Amino acid sequence: METDRVSQVSTGDERRADVIVEAAGRLFFGAGSARVSMDDLARELGMSKKTIYRHFSDKHSLLVAVLDRQFAAVERMLEAVAEEAEGRSFGVRVQRFLIAAGGELGRIGAPQLATGRGDAMLRQYVEQRVDAVVYRRLDALFREGHQQGLLPAPPELLSEITRGALERLLMSDLPRDLDWTAADLLRATVDTVLHGAIRPADQGIDDGQPRAVIPTARDDEQEVGP
Asked: Distance between CA atoms of 144 and 189, rounded to whole angstroms?
């Protein structure tokens, strides 16, 4: 028999499924998640496993639903950041996108999910979602900069370098070792990776003066470049 806690908030199948997905996200992707079972989830919800399986055929399908919700939130965040940065310099747009993307990927633990043990199909799904939600947007941004004459380096190269830097940082112990916040390290990574890659529009490719337009100050309202 299910508890009143669930029945009070479950006014229909859709709402009940939302409750299950929310609880599964807390349990399966939280600390010690490797040992969390469907029995644990049923106890957390105060409902039977039979009820859970009426909405999700197995644990894999439930985890996919959790990931879909998480990546939808990431997508909304990146769209909001892009809209807020519209009209700003290209360097600031890149910086804000990368910082937001790094923060969101770190929040949901995407690098760990994509490289960890467990369900190989789930790992592949995470990789596909990261690519679709984050990296395709990054690729488009670098292509735009290249077309505008702001990026002398091939945009494909910059995409690969930046992807590796972001993922490595999110998996790294550097925040602890250097006693920096993750935000500070991510900002430093953005500056380092893109230094010399972005140049003002009035600089020629062969003038021998590569210049970064990414601000290094913590106050990202300070813009450098066009």
From this structure: 21
pTM of the model: 0.73
Dihedral over Cα of 46, 52, 58, 60: its sign: negative
Per DSSP, helices labelled H in 2-154 are 4-9, 13-28, 38-45, 49-55, 59-85, 90-108, 110-115, 120-130, 136-147
CB neighbourhood size of 106 (10 A): 19
Predicted local distance difference test score (pLDDT) of residue 121 = 81
86 vs 67: CA distance, rounded Å: 28
**CA-CA distance, 139 to 135, in Å (whole number)?**
6
SS3 for 29-71, per residue? CCCCHHHCCHHHHHHHHCCCHHHHHHHCCCHHHHHHHHHHHHH
In this predicted structure, what is the pLDDT of residue 116? 63
| Minimum mean pLDDT range among 10-14, 71-75, 102-106, 125-129 | 10-14
DSSP state of 130: H
> Tens digit of pLDDT for each residue in 74-90?
999 999 999 999 999 99
Alpha-carbon dihedral sign for residues 106, 112, 118, 124: positive
* Residue range 128-157: mean pLDDT, rounded: 92
Distances (CA, A) of 36 to 32, 107, 111, 143: 7, 20, 20, 43
